[in-house]
Amino acid sequence: MPVARPETSDSRVIAHVDMDCFYVQVEQRKNPELRGLPTAVVQYNSWQGGGLIAVSYEARKYGVKRSMRGAESKQVCPQIQLVQVPVARGKADLNSYRNAGSEVVSILSGKGRCERASIDEVYLDLTDAAETMLAEAPPEILEAIEEEALKSHVLGLDNEEGSEAKENVRKWLCKTNADRRDKLLACGALIVAELRLLVLKETEFTCSAGIAHNKMLAKLASGMNKPAQQTVVPLSSVKGLLESLPIKKMKQLGGKLGSSLQTDLGVNTVGDLLQFSEEKLQQRYGINTGTWLWNIARGISGEEVEGRLLPKSHGSGKTFPGPQALKTISSVQHWLNELCEDLSERLQLDLDENKRIAHTLVLHANAYKASDSDSQKKFPSKSCPLRYGAAKIQEDALNLFQAALREYLGLFTAKIQGSQNNQWGITSLSVSASKIVPIPSGTASIMKYFHGHQPSSSTKQSQDNFIEESAPPPPSGNENYLELNVDKPQIELPCEETTIKYAVPSLHQLEDKNNLLNDQNPCSSLKNQAQDEFMRESLPLPTSGSEHFSGVNESQLMKNSCGEDPSVKLAMPGFRRLEQKRKTVKNKGTSSILRFFKNQDPSSAPKKLEHVENTEDAKTLLSVGPQSRSDSSLDHNQSELPKAGPFEEPGTSSAPSSSQYEQRRGVWSFNTDEIDPSVIDELPPEIQQEVRAWLRPHKRQNVAKRGSSIADYFLPTSL
DNA sequence: ACGGATGAAACC
DNA sequence: TGGTTTCAT
After folding, report:
1. Is the CB of A215 under 7 A from strand B?
2. A73-121, pLDDT tens digit by residue?
3. Where is there biased composition of kind Polar residues (predicted)?
4. Cys-Cys crosslink for A370: which of A260, A423, A553, A621, Cβ 3.0 to 4.6 Å?
5. H/E element holding A562?
């Protein structure tokens, strides 16, 4: 059996792509008259001109900075154009930016594994693409190197006097006797240049990028030359780069940890870290952080680019600063209702477009309490199983809030004073949905694969665990959840081992998400313990117990549950639609980003990209390699882009025979420990990622020492 | 008691 | 776990 050799991080090709002042660009695309002008995006114009959350590079020249007030920015830059963030339900509405970010992700995910790091940042693992290019069309044989690639910044590349910078870059990119890893980076640079061009042509957004051998260095590099430029970090430049880099510039070291490094250890640059042994760092900062620090000092970062195009959670919140603090339950209820509506809408979209379901509802708040001894006590967060439908989320959120408020106030009696402010005020509220998992799709293939595998042992304890987890205890002091748990029928599944459980849906049940959400058949749809829980919570309430609020509107509930409002669907394009759009766009592959803007009349209406002259576009260069780009896209990011399959294309799938039906709807269980890892490689590619996610090793606990296993970390290489 | 809204992740 | 804290943009 082959020993898994940890691949040295040095031979990967990783890119970090960072949109330039993204919110500003979104607004400038919406209103092209703003292009080229000093512009900032501001929210809540009411107070001091609102707070800036994005500033164009033209405005930055005047010293305008994020977190400035609108009025403040006018003082240093009187001509500045301030654009307000859209407002919906009384709060800032960031949906247009989220959607714009999705546009970008859908383009960038076309090449290699892609991780959505934030609304405007993406990591790409371009190793495979770069390897392929190196093997089939290395830069040295290309007579014409993409203009945009020639404008790359290559760290450590000495600019010889008298010769053009681009000429130097060309030489570096095409150097025949270069280290193989440098050649891979060169290929990465070419690919990224093309991708950035593609993004620009399809979205009108510029971005900056860093290309390096790991995420940390790529992220560092992407911020070094902005806007609309890219930076390459060859292996040989790493030591010099980190040596003088202020410690606080490193991601994750911009806060307290970075300050501690400076104050407690006298570390001012990343290079200063080199003198400390790993043990020393671990002793002071813990096993994980210590090792991490020791590694980053050497430019080592083994973090993988996760193939994840969608957010792991959704949240909606609002602050109520100072005098606006909420002082009555009913005002809290009002705002919770707004936030929950917003959240519910986004959850429904996620379900419709991405076939994902969230399982946990979390409420956060901040509060002040005048005059008490422990008035600085934090307002506790509370969570509960998430039930779909705006009305239910609202109801649950309010219950969570009341439970938290009781705890905060130190009250353990049943009632909270209705509208009397007992010196408390809520200064912020937020609701969020987490534990989002894909609806079982492709599950049948997994089942088929594991068909015949029988659990080798039976553990009573694990069964007990499962039952217990299916009926989580209610938030403390909350009667409603007691009621739910008592009154609702418990779902018991005849399982022996419970590491992973599947209840496989029938086709017709998945065809209609009404069935999915409201189905009363315990054996239908939904995989694993958490989803069973979800289903249980989605069952209609037996009778009362939830009638606290007269505002609950049943039709509204149904509308949200069913998500049939077409306007909502149009508001947020799904990836599939974007993918289609992308394929229809053809552009010239040779124009540089600067040329793009030079030719663009700022005062004219936004240019329709589809009208750009057609030629063989940038994709030509990108799609080197045996497989088509759509193939590679799906392979790398399958878990995020719901691929059309038997469960999602009911029209194309025939009804299963009754025997198949019985087979598929059966409940399965198996222990992940019993899965032979080598067998995963033989799974269909689109299944592999899902299975690997179950088996992925967790981060070391603060007990095991580094070195207990050589596979635990990357050995330092030739840095 | 305005750096807001929103995420991710480590920690305990 | 769930809840808290940190960090980032």
Report:
1. no
2. 999 999 999 999 999 999 999 999 999 999 999 999 999 999 999 999 9
3. 454-465, 651-661
4. A423
5. helix A554-562
